[in-house]
Design goal:
Elements lengths: L2 H7 L6 E2 L1 E2 L10 E5 L6 E6 L3 H18 L4 H17 L1 H12 L3 H21 L7 E2 L6 E9 L3 E4 L7 H12 L4 E4 L5 H15 L8 E4 L3 H9 L6 E5 L2 H13 L3 E5 L4 E5 L5 H13 L9 E7 L3 H13 L19 H16 L3 E4 L15 E4 L15 E7 L2 H9 L3 E2 L1 E5 L3 H8 L8 E4 L11 E2 L2 E2 L6 E2 L8 E9 L14
Parallel strand pairs: 1-4, 7-8, 7-10, 8-9, 10-11, 12-13, 12-18, 13-16, 15-16, 18-19
Antiparallel strand pairs: 2-9, 3-4, 5-6, 6-23, 14-15, 17-21, 20-22
Helix pairs in contact: 1-4, 3-5, 3-7, 4-5, 4-7, 5-6, 10-11
The structure holds nicotinamide-adenine-dinucleotide.
Length: 505
């Protein structure tokens, strides 16, 4: 597909601006280049927001919030329904742009846009719910219940590896909750953010609610820190590395804001001796190689029972040999590039460290210099569970294959890292599976049986524990993060009885 046509079809014309405050603004910050990681070529250049322009965006989001929250939630849902339809119309082009900018293969680009559409549908249904509970009161002729109110403008900080879906998890749910949004995307995928904002602009134009979905593309110093420290923005939803969360989380809390953190993972699959090894091999390969190992839920550690580790390793080597690496826009490609040359260097450094800690590369391990972009081989490393390097999240297709003795050893190793995002067990034993899912099992936000660690559906709440940050987004009752809860007691009698039986004359 022709890049120019993709960009045109998405309505991106003329000088590209990184500022949207109820309408596109003339940005006056630094220039930013969007680069295709598969070729190293420039896709487009745009102008970023200054701190003052961020300020204007947020002023607009605050003003629009006053009106938007007055609109009944099902009517807000109607706008989100239209956004979902608009996304359906441009799914091929938006998916291709995501692939161009992030390097993920086209099937995954399409999956990402489908996820946005699914979230839009979910949010529309939610717009007729947003329900609170009614509790019985201990006092006669009293009614007690809780209700949920819009919170305010939400700041959304997103990572490069999900350039558009993570925005939708936040923005579309927040919108039906009555909130406005300010998006600060990753500087590696700015054009995808411009395209999505333009889609929203076309839907919202003329509605009077153009300031619901805003954009401020800028550096972490100029825009990121201004947003994080801005008391006008009650919620900061930040997706990215644990290092980013360590800065953003405390800064938001310091001003008594609400941080919603979706940070790094160090995900594991535990393969038991009674597992279907064919299923486990397929599940592990997709989870480790998909998005070239650049998903927060990518499989990092394969913990294999000692009785089947040799068999499992040789099956994986056979499958890894068949992984087709290349242009992510080509349908037959299974693995595209890493996001940058830095990411490739980092992978090579980590492999050196691993070998110094007794690791043995049993497949791959090389950069692929024959390609113009940042390509590497998917890599398998046999390594001990005690090697310090396996504690770290390396954002690359390295799979640590680690021997474990039994279920309890496997669970201990799985839980023995600082992160707590996604986990899985492959077993045919009900007892093993239930133990893994019980309170004695996985300590992660996501725990699967006979499914890999990546590729979550939007209907569930997504997020992780420990250094992954504790946030939950997307389905289930994640919408509650975007609203404020109010507990209400109404006295409909003529007396004034006090709670806990207190007499106060
Ligand atoms: P990153 O931490 O480098 O950047 C993420 C975002 O945070 C970017 O928009 C960046 O500009 C912004 N940022 C960084 N420092 C900031 C600061 N001090 N103030 C304000 N904003 C700041 O991450 P990345 O390389 O883009 O993405 C990869 C990481 O994201 C991995 O660790 C991955 O696991 C994680 N991730 C987590 C989830 C999840 O849902 N848990 C989803 C996707 C990615």
């Amino acid at each position: 597909m022709d890049t120019e046509k993709i960009v045109q079809r998405l309505g991106i014309t003329g000088p590209i601006q990184g500022v949207y405050a109820g309408g596109w603004q003339d940005a006056t910050g630094e220039e930013l280049t969007s680069v295709n990681p598969a070729t190293g070529e420039t896709i487009a250049t745009l102008t970023m927001a200054t701190r003052d322009q961020y300020d204007a965006v947020t002023r607009d989001a605050v003003e629009t919030f006053q009106e938007w929250r007055m609109l009944p939630a099902p009517k807000r849902g109607e706008y989100v329904r239209l956004i979902g339809n608009a996304l359906r119309d441009v799914k091929p082009e938006l998916s291709a742009l995501v692939t161009l900018e992030s390097g993920k293969i086209l099937a995954e680009g399409e999956g990402e846009v489908q996820e946005m559409i699914d979230i839009a549908d979910f949010a529309v249904g939610l717009s007729r719910q947003l329900y609170g509970l009614t509790m019985t009161s201990e006092r006669p002729r009293h009614r007690m219940y809780e209700q949920w109110h819009p919170l305010g403008p939400c700041g959304i900080i997103s990572a490069f590896n999900f350039p558009v879906a993570v925005w939708s998890w936040n923005a579309l749910i927040a919108a039906v909750c009555g909130d406005t949004n300010i998006w600060k995307p990753s500087l590696r995928t700015p054009l995808s953010a411009v395209a999505v904002t333009e889609i929203c602009h076309q839907v919202m134009a003329g509605s009077g609610f153009e300031g619901v979905f805003n954009l401020a593309i800028g550096t972490d110093d100029e825009v990121g820190s201004a947003m994080v420290n801005d008391t006008r923005v009650p919620l900061i939803s930040a997706t990215g590395s644990c290092n980013m969360g360590r800065i953003v989380g405390p800064a938001v809390l310091k001003r008594m804001g609400r941080p919603l953190l979706e940070l790094g993972g160090n995900n594991a699959i535990l393969v038991m001796d009674d597992a279907d090894l064919d299923l486990a091999t397929r599940g592990a390969t997709f989870a480790a190689v998909g998005t070239a190992g650049q998903r927060c839920t990518s499989l990092r550690r394969l913990l294999v029972h000692s009785d089947v580790i040799d068999e499992m390793t040789s099956r994986l080597i056979d499958v890894y040999k068949q992984v087709r690496i290349g242009d992510p826009l080509e349908r037959q490609t299974l693995m595209g590039p890493l996001i940058s040359s830095n990411a490739v260097d980092q992978m090579m450094t980590v492999l050196e460290i691993a070998q110094g800690q007794g690791g043995e590369v049993v497949y791959g391990g090389n950069r692929l210099d024959g390609f113009p972009g940042h390509f590497v081989e998917p890599t398998l490393v046999r390594i001990s569970k005690d090697a310090p390097i396996v504690q770290e999240e390396t954002f690359a297709p390295i799979l640590w294959v680690i021997e474990v003795d039994d279920l309890s050893d496997g669970i201990a190793v799985q839980n023995g890292v600082r992160q707590g995002l996604s986990s899985a067990i492959f077993t045919d034993s009900l007892s093993n599976a239930e133990t893994f899912l019980s309170h004695m099992g996985s300590d992660c936000g996501i725990a699967n049986v006979n499914i890999g660690t990546s590729g979550a559906e939007i209907g569930g709440a997504f997020g992780g524990e420990k250094e992954t940050g504790g946030g939950r987004e997307a389905g289930s009752d994640s919408w509650k993060s975007y609203m404020r809860r109010q507990t209400t007691t109404i006295n409909w009698g003529g007396d004034l009885p006090l709670a806990q039986g207190i007499e106060f004359v």
